């Protein structure tokens, strides 16, 4: 390692992205096949919506919000 490296300068966003990428690469390296979206999310620490809620239910909620916005604008 280079002992002349100035460690006072850090790009915290870049360092966080590198850490996430290395976590994902570790999971990929140990996987026996293609990763599912859920496995990738777990490796990255991403919280997903509860499985009980279907896409149709999410769409219905979105439609309700849009209707409410339209009626409140009038």
Automatic annotation (TrEMBL):
<feature type="region of interest" description="Disordered">
    <location>
        <begin position="47"/>
        <end position="74"/>
    </location>
</feature>
<feature type="compositionally biased region" description="Basic and acidic residues">
    <location>
        <begin position="47"/>
        <end position="56"/>
    </location>
</feature>
<feature type="compositionally biased region" description="Basic residues">
    <location>
        <begin position="58"/>
        <end position="74"/>
    </location>
</feature>
<protein>
    <submittedName>
        <fullName>Uncharacterized protein</fullName>
    </submittedName>
</protein>
């Amino acid at each position: 390692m280079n002992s002349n490296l100035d460690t006072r300068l850090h790009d915290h966003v870049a360092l966080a992205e590198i850490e996430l990428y290395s976590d994902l690469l570790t999971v990929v390296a140990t996987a026996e096949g293609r990763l599912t979206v859920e496995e990738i999310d777990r490796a990255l620490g991403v919280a997903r919506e509860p499985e009980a809620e279907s896409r149709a239910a999410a769409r219905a909620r979105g439609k309700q919000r849009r209707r409410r916005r339209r009626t409140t604008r009038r």
